């Protein structure tokens, strides 16, 4: 049975101090902190989710902050670059904003698009690209308005230890279409209008090492629970080892490591982030799954306090 994912559901990375993480993604990039919870497998660690106003799939980047941990190394077996889509005409605003926060950036062209590349505060490689497709983000923050706000993911660049095998998984398992090759990169496209462009680096280099400043996994979209179970069977039929379904409260998840060593997740679009708090209040308080609610006081004492702060005042 042939299946196609709509595109990226979310990307999860490891970072350093949680307040620095919040300051960068909310304060500088203007994303909404849509969920403040804990790593369900390590509840002494935050799991922070940032995205558009509604926290829709294709806009969500999530983080496990490990304060004082040794930095990781970006390399093969990882998502190397996370790409964000911004509205057409918004690039001058973003170059000025990055400059105002003393964030170095470079400019290049790939597949006919102008790309601005920079690193976050903990070393994750990011880029901005103007795209007409995708709905506008109605979340505004500081000087970032609807005409400049990040829409969501443009896509991602995969660093694979076996690029040809990763390419085959993207087309034969995930249902993406190969659309172009340019220089050292091959581009694949999914059916969504956001989080839909995946570039695979065709050459290999050093192997990545997990730690702050690296992506832990990339998650792909499943329509609902029934589709999710169909995906699980589909992946098994491709002779890839896939996990049991994991309840992540805001979606169900399955995981498998593709032959190029990149950890893939497939996650359901529902129920989303507003089922345990209202959309208006998402991200304002620590939300815990039922199994950890009895430990709320202990976890609050362990976790480093964080807050979303308006940082435009430090710009020059």
From TrEMBL:
Residues 7-131, 152-269 form the VOC domain. The keyword Nucleotidyltransferase does not apply. Keywords: Dioxygenase, Oxidoreductase. Pfam families: Glyoxalase (PF00903). Coiled coil: none annotated. One of its GO terms (molecular function) is dioxygenase activity. Gene3D superfamilies: 2,3-Dihydroxybiphenyl 1,2-Dioxygenase, domain 1 (3.10.180.10). This is Ring-cleaving dioxygenase MhqO. It comes from Paenibacillus montaniterrae. The gene is mhqO.
């Amino acid at each position: 049975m042939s299946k196609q994912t709509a595109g990226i559901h979310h990307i999860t990375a490891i970072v350093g101090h949680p307040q620095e993480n919040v300051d960068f993604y909310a304060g500088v990039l203007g994303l909404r902190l849509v969920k403040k919870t804990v790593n369900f497998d390590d509840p002494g660690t935050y799991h922070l989710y940032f995205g558009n106003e509604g926290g829709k799939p294709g806009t969500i980047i999530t983080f496990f902050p490990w304060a004082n941990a040794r930095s990781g190394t970006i390399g093969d077996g990882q998502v190397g670059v996370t790409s964000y889509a911004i509205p057409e005409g918004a690039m001058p605003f973003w170059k000025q904003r990055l400059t105002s926060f003393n964030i170095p950036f470079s400019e290049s062209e790939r597949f006919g698009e102008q790309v601005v590349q920079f690193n976050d505060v903990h070393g994750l490689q990011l880029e901005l690209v103007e795209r007409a497709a995708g709905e506008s983000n109605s979340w505004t923050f500081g000087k970032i308005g609807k005409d400049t706000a990040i829409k969501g993911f443009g896509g991602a660049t995969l660093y694979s230890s076996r690029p040809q095998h990763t390419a085959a998984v993207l087309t034969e398992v995930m249902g993406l279409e190969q659309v172009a090759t340019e220089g050292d990169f091959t581009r694949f496209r999914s059916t969504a209008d956001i989080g839909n462009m995946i570039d695979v680096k065709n050459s290999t280099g050093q192997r990545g090492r997990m730690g702050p400043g690296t992506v832990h996994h990339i998650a792909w979209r499943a329509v609902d629970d029934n589709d999710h179970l169909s995906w699980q069977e589909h992946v098994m039929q491709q002779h890839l080892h896939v996990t049991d379904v994991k309840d992540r409260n805001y979606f169900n998840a399955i995981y498998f490591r593709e032959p190029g060593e990149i950890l893939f997740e497939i996650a359901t679009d529902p129920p989303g982030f507003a089922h345990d708090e209202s959309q208006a209040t998402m991200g304002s308080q620590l939300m815990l799954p039922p199994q950890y609610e009895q430990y709320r006081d202990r976890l609050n004492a362990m976790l480093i306090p964080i807050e979303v702060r308006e940082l435009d005042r430090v710009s020059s």
